[in-house]
């Protein structure tokens, strides 16, 4: 009787071999070559007048205009965010009057150019020489001269803030609608009021959708403040224009303003990334994004631990 022996062999470990992406390497070399040409042409271009740029980069007038630009950006965005939340809630309200009023506001402020709104608020006295409070179709209790009440700074805030509120309303409304409606029904079944449900359940989850476009709107607002030059308010672009109107160094002063805008937008971009990272903690999307980034950088896909640590493509 022949005895059969069963020979067991251990399977070899799967070795993941990264795929060579020669096309990416060639594209990278071409991009670096073109970038070097552009940087060299900018740095060595005498028409840029980099010495003049250095002289005016930290000029007192430039820094004062920069300060006013930041103040305008912060206050206008606060007006826009608060107004946008209120308008979004009104737009989603079952009350047809509230929803209609919010829709009309958004239609009006998104449908007219921002520069037109700035000029309108600055010259509001042409339509209403005096602004007052009183009973409708009755006497006024108190009134003010419009020209003294609405300064260029006030007109800039009204134009930028109220216009931004119309855009933020749609951003917030999209974030609220992204939350599953079943959570609103569950909160209502538990006896929570609509305001409490919105504050504790809906808005915290909607922030993941609201934050990225809000960051973009903030960066856009920083650059949009340059439009207030049309109503004579002193900000970064106005300060640069006033200086080159005296010394006729137009190109270097525009470079100074551009460098400050680039610096501030870079800071805002970093802040936006940190805020997005904070609100995306615990979400599966963040894990997917990190895995996708790693796979693109390393050139292979990670597998389960049971398959030897990787899988060849």
Automatic annotation (TrEMBL):
Domain of life: Bacteria
Transport listed as a keyword: yes
Transmembrane domains' residue ranges: 25-43, 70-90, 102-128, 148-167, 250-271
Key words of the record: Amino-acid transport, Cell membrane, Membrane, Transmembrane, Transmembrane helix, Transport
PROSITE patterns according to UniProt: ABC_TM1
Localization per Swiss-Prot or TrEMBL: Cell membrane
Entry GO terms, CC: ATP-binding cassette (ABC) transporter complex
Domain ABC transmembrane type-1: start-end pairs: 66-272
Pfam families: BPD_transp_1
Membrane topology designation: Multi-pass membrane protein
SUPFAM superfamilies: MetI-like
GO biological process: amino acid transport
Molecular-function annotations in GO: transmembrane transporter activity
KW Ribosomal protein (keyword) present: no
Family of the protein in this entry: Belongs to the binding-protein-dependent transport system permease family.
Protein's name according to its UniProt entry: Polar amino acid transport system permease protein
Organism whose genome encodes this protein: Amycolatopsis thermoflava
